[in-house]
Design a protein that fits this description.
Oligomer: single chain
CATH topology of the largest domain: Rossmann fold
Largest sheet: 9 strands, mixed
Radius of gyration: 22 Å
CATH architecture of the largest domain: 3-Layer(aba) Sandwich
Strand content: 15-25%
């Protein structure tokens, strides 16, 4: 593949990190609601393929993927699209209005920040960031540009009817005042046998340098990336474990229903911290103002603890062990248990004649359409980077607490852990040369 023949020149970007992405001046040109957005698709297979399908009604200007086999297969369906393996060339292209980012976690914030700096609308898969610092950067840069760009995190479930019904009931105080929300996912993490894998030849279809991106320098081995999310997400260098991944969808319901923002204290229980790998199970507690707690559980031991906490509260109304994922709101008058598609109110005898009489939330235009509409008509999508960035900052603090091995006292205003100076290093990371985030 000759990148220059595709309308790009790699030498303009390599070695300059994100400094090569020029900040826009003035307001963006108005986008007609009837015209098509010029889309750059960063990550074209897997989740990228699903997200591409969600925006296929717009004009697909450029397809980007580190796997040239994937690019060839997808370009066959979008034959007018340019192709490249380097997302830095996509975010800098002056013809592109909006980008869809579906990479491994460690690229999410660098690519999205660069795109926002270039004045482009951004859709980014969850989790929005790889570190707490990145999550804060995402919020701050979006807020500076919110009148010019539209953003959305890939929390597709946020647009569904069941989430809306549960949020409506919580806000209408159907179960009284809520002091706890319990959130869980049964998924675990497989062991990592070797911290650093031996080098092996780079396949001719793979752009290893770009896949590695801001992560620490290392020789190529397909064991880092083959198998997708359930593989690379196990390693702190590339992913955020089960909490970072599934917490984006599930804690979102509590975040929305309870109007949460910044915690004041975070504790994580689990196996001993591993410098390389995310934990196979966790129980995390975030303490919010006004004595409100959010708890997270994953993995086999997490599920045992979840059931021990929630089953006595719901009696025989539902079998908690049958909920592989879920959120339980515990109120002064009862409990609501929900997943993506259903909800149960308990005690059932108290709610057999329940009729919702609160304020209803309007149906969604559709997860992708919300963002596209905001791109063309102004306004904000529900999962814009202010809302979703604060959610991801909150979630990733749970991983920092796990890695630090202690309860953290959080100074959100100053983005600082008050009771452990050494743990502050876990809020951010060092970026490989040429991939620095320059704001």
């Amino acid at each position: 593949m000759n990148l220059e023949n595709q309308g790009y020149t790699r030498r303009k970007f390599v070695g300059f990190g994100l400094a090569a992405v020029a900040a826009p001046t003035g307001r963006l040109k108005a986008q007609s609601p009837h015209s098509k957005l010029q889309m750059g698709i960063i990550g074209s297979g897997g989740r990228g393929g699903a997200n591409l399908n969600g925006v296929r009604g717009e004009n697909i200007h450029t397809l980007c993927d580190v796997n040239r086999k994937t690019l060839a297969a997808v370009q066959a369906r979008y034959q007018g699209a340019k192709i490249t393996t380097d997302w830095r060339e996509v975010v800098s292209h002056p013809e592109i209005d909006a980008v869809v980012i579906s990479t491994a976690d460690h690229h999410h914030a660098p690519a999205a920040l660069a795109a926002m700096k270039a004045g482009k609308h951004v859709y980014c898969e969850k989790p929005l960031a790889h570190t707490v610092q990145e999550a804060r950067w995402m919020q701050e840069l979006y807020l500076k540009n919110q009148n010019r760009i539209a953003t959305q995190m890939g929390t597709q479930i946020h647009a569904t009817a069941n989430y809306r019904r549960v949020v409506e009931m919580v806000k209408a105080a159907a179960i009284g005042e809520i002091k706890e929300a319990h959130v869980w996912c049964s998924r675990s993490i497989s062991n990592i046998d070797q911290a650093v894998l031996p080098g092996e030849p780079i396949p001719d279809y793979m752009d290893w340098d770009v896949w590695l991106g801001p992560a620490p320098e290392r020789e190529h081995h397909q064991g880092y990336w083959k198998g997708g999310n359930l593989n690379w997400n196990r390693r702190w260098d590339f992913g955020n474990g089960v909490l970072g991944d599934m917490g984006s969808h599930l804690i979102d319901l509590a975040w929305w229903a309870l109007d949460l923002h910044r915690p004041i204290r975070v504790t994580s229980e689990g196996p001993s911290p591993d410098e390389v790998a995310a934990p196979p199970w966790q129980e995390v507690t975030w303490e919010h103002p006004e004595n409100l707690k959010v708890k997270w559980y994953h993995g086999p031991e997490g599920m045992r603890r979840r059931s021990a906490a929630i089953q006595p509260l719901v009696g025989t109304d539902t079998e908690i062990n049958q909920w592989g994922i879920g959120v339980a709101f515990v109120g002064t008058k009862g409990v609501i248990v929900s997943d993506y598609g259903k909800n149960v109110l308990s005690p059932s005898a108290d709610f057999k004649d329940y009729q919702f009489d609160g304020e209803a939330i309007e149906p969604s235009l559709g997860h992708y359409q919300e963002w596209i509409d905001a791109c063309k008509n102004g306004g904000k999508s529900l999962c814009n980077f202010d809302y979703s960035g604060s959610l991801i900052e909150h979630n990733l603090l749970g991983n920092v607490a796990h890695r630090a091995g202690k309860t953290l006292e959080w100074d959100a205003k100053n983005l600082r852990i008050k009771n452990d100076d050494t743990a502050n290093a876990l809020l951010t990371k060092t970026y490989r040369k040429g991939w620095e985030v320059l704001l």
